[in-house]
Amino acid sequence: MRETNFLVENNARHVWHPMAHPAEMQANPPRIVHAAEGVEITDVHGKRVLDAVGGLWNVNLGYSCEPVKAAIRDQLDDLPYYSAFRGTTTSPLIELSYELAEWFKEDGLVRSFFTSGGSDSVETALRLARQYHKINGQPERTKFVSLKKGYHGTHFGGASVNGNANFRRNYEPLLPGVIHLAAPYAYRNPFNTSDPAEIAQAIARQFEDEVAFQGADTIAAFIMEPVLGSGGVIVPHETFMPLIREICDRHGILMIADEVICAFGRTGAWTGSRGWGVKPDLMCTAKAITNGYFPFGAVMISEKVASVFENNKSPFGSIGHGYTYSGHPVGAAAALATLRETTRLNVAANAAARGTELLEGLKGLQAKYELIGDVRGLGLMAALELVSDRAKKTPAGKEAVATVYEATYEAGVIVRTSGANVIISPPLVITAADVQRIVSALDAGF
Ligand code: PLP
Known about the structure:
Oligomer: single chain
Structural class: alpha/beta
Shape: globular
CATH superfamily of the largest domain: Type I PLP-dependent aspartate aminotransferase-like (Major domain)
Keywords: Aminotransferase, Plasmid, Pyridoxal phosphate, Transferase
Family: Belongs to the class-III pyridoxal-phosphate-dependent aminotransferase family.
CATH architecture of the largest domain: 3-Layer(aba) Sandwich
Helix content: 25-40%
CATH topology of the largest domain: Aspartate Aminotransferase, domain 2
Bound molecules: pyridoxal-5'-phosphate
Pfam families: Aminotran_3 (PF00202)
Protein name: Aspartate aminotransferase family protein
GO molecular function: pyridoxal phosphate binding; transaminase activity
CATH class of the largest domain: Alpha Beta
């Protein structure tokens, strides 16, 4: 490795970072991560910290997952690449689809369409939803409904259904025909209540109103995260997703679960949808599907959608969509090994148990520090929302948030900040002692 000064200077000079202002790189250079082991990362200065971000909500099994590393190495030796476009396929891809169908059986998802990441998965699901209706003789069903504060990646389709202005405004105009409903956000919402069940009902009514106003026969799909991750870990009431599912069913609208973060155990259930007792028509996955070791994703497809695509003579029947890296054999091998390890280690149960401890610890911090306005989470995804005035719920300023971030790092734990939120999403294999370490470091950080 080159010396640290070279890396810092040339990062500032040559690298544009996602979700960052290029001009800030000189004044506020990113930490250079050099190595990782277990659930810890080490920076170029040799400081080792617990990774309470889990890479980027994706390294669910930690950094020392040998079976996944070995699968990648072996696949690179056997067949480093071949395409899955019509005419060819590869054995890891077939084996993976077979095991995914078993794994997602309880969600009613029977086919896979592979992608190279979360944004690709969202784009794929949106396109398949429109195509489904075209094949079905309802080509006018083109609109999408989504939630404010939802995050669905950065392609134009995903950005269009995103519910955060920061990811939209610089790139408008986006897709027309997208309707955003309120977020199921108990701490701040337009309904004058903090009762999550009432909020769920209020948003369901909004949805019904919009369906009546737009015309059900113009709406292709509703897309939502079972727990809104990047928008600040917004956990809806348990009735919310089932209410939305029921409205979708009554009006012939497809339901897309964006489980790029939630799938594979993060919420304490194997999928976020399963945790809420809902079977989506399409499910977007990525991130933890390869434990973050290889860019990969899959859209899981229900029997209902699959049968329309597989039994028609429609001129719209062929899938005119796909990526060079759809089903990359190295990614497929990584996913297969990850899936087996994820199951063997029963990480969903650990996420549920450790998540309860984490939330309790964070609530303890809230009782201690005025700066913490709200604490929320499910499984191993949690957020602290910082405020400068608790009564008025004034969002904390950038500096206050940065101070907590830096001090927590100094105390041995890296967290992520997004606006006024401190977000915690550690690997799902953390121990009770790791949870205590996260809470203690935050305690030192406030
Ligand atoms: N959907 C959700 C719910 C996400 O959280 C993300 C990324 O964080 C995406 C889509 C986009 O995934 P990617 O960054 O892999 O393109």
